[in-house]
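Ticket 4471: requesting a sanity check on a complex prediction with adenosine-5'-diphosphate. Repro inputs:
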Amino acid sequence: MKGDIPMGTIGINFKNIQHQYRTKDVLRGVSFHADPSSITFLAGENGAGKTTLIKVALGLISPKAGNALFDGQSVGEIREKISCVFDEPPVYPNESGLDNLKFLSGIHSLDRKWSQEVCAMLKLDEGLLKQKAKALSLGQRHRLAVAAALLRKPKYLFLDEPSIGLDPPSWQLVQIALKQMTARGCAILITGQNYDAIENLADNIAILQSGKIIFSGPIVKLVQAFPVYVRIVTDDHREIAVQFPEAEPDSSGIYRIVCESGEQARAVIDQVRRSTLNFQELSTEKASMGKMVTDIYKDGFQSEKRGLTYESVQN
Ligand code: ADP
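Returned structure tokens:
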């Protein structure tokens, strides 16, 4: 037990959520959890049901079955501790940045110290806050929306496709702010398809496919389950074919040997070094998170093959 909250229910706990639009089953029993002090990436192809799931969690739609609990409590009980930022955050175009912060956060008398801290984190300076929102760039408007969400000092934060259309410097600032929030204990759930942008940010991943979670757990665990490649750049095509027939060239002529583990990759690297093969570059390589997730979409999860266990909370 942690305080009076039963173990396994801390953070955001999605339990067997089912939802239908007319006759279309979109969520078919979604169960997983988003831990406090961490960022969970909800991955899923377009139309997988990510936004629907967030709407269920926020109490905007009633599911056919299941629910989302926040440290064991329903959304109605802890609504003021939740913040949410949607991909194209609405702003009041004719109001100043500062007034937008007040309207969007729902806080009319801002905590001065915290609002200064949040605005500094997101580089929203006085000049910018005085401007009408319609004069701001998309990146500035998005940072404004994130700031408004943070001003509520949320314990639970949802961001739907936060990196879409954001300029890299704005996304960088948003990422730093999100990390700061996890340091304060916040449970953050981010959706998206921009795996490259989220790979180094999130701690955990939940993959939604065909209305179900097919994997949830630490990203490092997912990474360990995928092969490591030994990458060899060489012009010695004849020799590599003789000595390392398992090496496959890609379309630009770079060879790769698939290894089951980092240990095996190191052994192969030693073997190549000791061989008579002339090479220009020799290194190990891991697939990107995007490649791993798209492989899972394509081939199915194949948990036995990957040696992974399904970690979602089932009840
Ligand atoms: P994602 O966020 O993963 O792209 P959504 O949750 O937006 O997915 O949508 C999941 C599926 O439900 C999609 O096929 C979408 O067209 C459908 N859908 C979403 N909202 C509605 C709605 N209000 N009425 C009917 N179908 C909807």
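Notes from triage: Residues 168-183 form the longest helix (16 residues). Leaving this open until the requester confirms.
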